[in-house]
Amino acid sequence: MSVQTPAQRPRRSIRERLFGNPMVTKELRGRMRGARAFIVLTVYLLLMSGFVTLIYLLYVGTLALTGPSQGGEIGRVLFRSIVGVELFLVTFIAPAFAAGAISGERERQTYELLRTTLLPARALVGGKLFATLSYIFLLLLAAIPLQSIAFLFGGVSEAEVILAFIILLCTSLLLGTVGVFFSATTRRTLSASVLSYAFAMLTIVVLPLGLLILTPVLGGLITTYGPTLSGTVEAAIYYGVGLLIASNPMATLFGTLLLLSDRQVAGGFDITLQNGGVIHLVSPWIPFVIFTLVVSAVLLWLAVRRVDRIEDI
């Protein structure tokens, strides 16, 4: 009987590679078999629902004191609050599910058994990551009915919902890949969890605080010294702030939504400099998607190389 070479074997589709991966089947069955997954989903939706109710009551109470607001304002407030809390919750959930993906196998003393199978390292790491992202994707889908409540009050467009969902997906991909990477490079789940949460807090909390401090300073610098600054320096400041915003999920989310609601801009837009020149910028979600895809691909490649390395047992 002739043996097919790798070049002669039929190429499998992406769907077959993902769902035909035994690691994906194992992880999804194990994750959804117990009560933990459903408890997390229930608590997640309860927290989201309680927060939506609280924001609505606070906003209605504020209107009772200040008078009626512009049409659709309550819808925009509810939508941005829901998406912001959803991003914050995903930040805590993604590392928790991804950090023990590979280090947990070491702690259960099943890692060496997995490495003796015919399953390649890329299938092992990719299966772990895909199973983690599948559950996070389920959480994002489950919260869409809560986001749609904002449509009852108006002020929210379909483009805002789609772009917010894309940003949430990319953030989940980045944090999930970070968790799998640290899980592959450390031997303990606790160490992987600490490193993953440190990265998540740096990107979600620390960088936005730095942007809140830096943006008014740079804005005042441009306003005060704009006429004396060269066009190159002023353009560099705008591009630098834009890159800082695009490197942070929270800043990207609210920057994109503000541009979409205030300027109706989802792609590129122009800014006029103090000297009369014009520069072209893009909405933060575009460089953010590129940034997360590149970083995730690099971290996934490094994790595969780490798992594929022969270790001393």
> How many structural units, i.e. domains?
1
Order of helix and strand elements from N to C terminus: HHHHHHHHHHHHHEEH
CA-based gyration radius: 23 Å
| Number of helices in the DSSP assignment | 14
Percentage of residues assigned to helices: over 70%
Oligomeric state of the chains present here: single chain
Our measurement of the CA-to-CA distance between the termini, rounded to an integer number of angstroms, reads 37 Å
What is the typical, i.e. mean, pLDDT?
A: 78
Overall 3D geometry?
A: globular
Major sheet details: 2 strands, antiparallel
Structural class label: mainly alpha
In total, the number of strands is 2
Q: Any low-confidence stretches, pLDDT <50, length ≥5? A: none
Question: Would you kindly provide a written description of the structure presented here, covering whatever features stand out?
Answer:
The structure is a single chain. With 313 residues, this protein is mainly alpha-helical. It has one domain. The protein contains 14 helices and two strands, in the order αααααααααααααββα. The protein has helices at residues 14-19, 22-33, 36-66, 73-98, 103-107, 111-115, 121-142, 144-147, 149-153, 158-185, 189-225, 231-246, 249-262, 285-308, and strands at 268-272, 278-282. It has a two-stranded antiparallel sheet. A hairpin with a 5-residue loop joins β1 (268-272) and β2. The protein is globular and about 65 Å long. The protein starts with 13 loop residues before the first helix and ends in a 5-residue tail after the last helix. The model has no long low-confidence stretch (mean pLDDT 78).
